[in-house]
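Need a sequence for this fold. Nothing fancy.
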């Protein structure tokens, strides 16, 4: 099937899924993910490929840029301490739980057990952001804690992966140099370079100049982060965060730029990203492993919700908000899929076990939005 036809199927089917999800009263992203399962693994209409993978990567980059643009920097700073504790415990607990499961019940060696733990230590906040935006919760304190923890979680996962993957065992101090250099460059970029570039754009006053410069800033910081050994989505998030705080840079209305960016991402790139999450799954033989899959899914839920809940409660966050924070960290999404693929390539994850892991990752990605919606309703009922 041609690439053009695959893109057409993705956009039209996920648009239909959005309408059905709204009619059924479930989060739109859940309807889209379920449709992605149907057109991908079930019907085989969508196949993995370099072009679709690249478009999916752009989708999550734009999603994180928009999250940064909409984020409340004051809240992020205010709740940085609980964010740090949520991130640290959210990495330690899954590594311990899944490493023990791998060594004790699956008979894996130490390196493979640790790698299994690392897969489920990763957090994909992109799906959570979709839900927070849909229900207009981005300016809450629990959203700030989730965002802050997810950023730190991503950094910890990348550092751990670099140390654990074959051929990549390098000095921890060298690995930390990239993130430190990235942070050091943010101030001169935000204070001097971006105002200069946007001023030049204002002088030209060409069509969609602010949107073009925003896209360039987003991709430039994503590429810089990637070059320095970090996740590109982190660079995109900080690009959005900087422009969101410097809205006076825009010649046009900043809200218009945000709306244009969101429309472009939501209508094309993000549906392709969502479809890419389900594509790697292979259903053959999974029926015989249903009990193991249920156990792994239960562990995946508990290993994120429990530590985040304990961390948040230690800072006197309410019980419901603490549960929301923990649930917001549940989705593993694309980050875990990337780590799983690396493990499969390097022999750290058996091919026979790969599909089970992928199914659990997809299960957490679908369950998290449903659980968040219930918690939002409960939170309103108790208000």
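Here you go.
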């Amino acid at each position: 099937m041609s690439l053009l036809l695959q893109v057409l199927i993705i956009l039209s089917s996920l648009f239909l899924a959005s309408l059905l999800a709204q009619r059924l009263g479930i989060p739109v992203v859940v309807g889209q993910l379920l449709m992605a399962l149907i057109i991908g693994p079930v019907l085989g209409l969508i196949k993995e490929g370099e072009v679709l993978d690249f478009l999916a990567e752009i989708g999550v980059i734009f999603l994180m840029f928009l999250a940064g643009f909409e984020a409340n920097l004051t809240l992020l700073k205010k709740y940085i301490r609980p964010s740090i504790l949520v991130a640290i415990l959210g990495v330690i607990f899954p590594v311990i739980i899944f490493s023990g499961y791998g060594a004790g019940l699956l008979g894996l060696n130490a390196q493979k057990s640790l790698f299994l733990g690392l897969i489920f230590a990763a957090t994909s906040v992109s799906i959570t952001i979709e839900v927070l935006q849909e229900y207009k919760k981005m300016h809450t304190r629990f959203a700030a804690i989730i965002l802050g923890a997810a950023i730190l979680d991503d950094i910890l996962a990348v550092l751990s992966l670099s140390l654990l993957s074959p051929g990549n065992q390098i000095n921890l101090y060298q690995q930390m140099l990239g993130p430190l250099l990235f942070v050091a460059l943010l101030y001169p970029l935000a204070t001097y370079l971006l105002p200069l570039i946007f001023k030049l754009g204002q002088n030209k006053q060409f069509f969609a100049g602010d949107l073009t410069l925003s896209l360039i800033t987003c991709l430039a910081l994503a590429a810089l982060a990637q070059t320095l050994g970090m996740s590109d989505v982190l660079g995109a998030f900080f690009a959005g965060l900087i422009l969101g705080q410097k809205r006076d840079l825009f010649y046009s209305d900043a809200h218009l730029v945000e709306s244009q960016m969101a429309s472009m991402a939501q209508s094309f790139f993000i549906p392709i990203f969502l479809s890419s999450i389900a594509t790697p799954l292979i259903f053959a033989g999974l029926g015989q492993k249903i009990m193991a899959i249920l156990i792994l899914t239960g562990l995946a839920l508990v290993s994120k919700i429990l530590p985040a809940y304990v961390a948040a409660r230690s800072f006197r966050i309410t019980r419901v908000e603490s549960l929301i924070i923990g649930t917001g960290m549940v989705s593993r999404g694309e980050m875990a899929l990337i780590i799983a693929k690396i493990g499969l390539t390097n022999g750290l994850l058996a091919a026979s076990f790969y599909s089970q892991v992928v199914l659990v990752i997809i299960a957490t990605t679908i369950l998290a939005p449903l659980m968040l919606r219930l918690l939002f309703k409960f939170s309103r009922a108790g208000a």
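For context: The first helix runs from residue 3 to 24.
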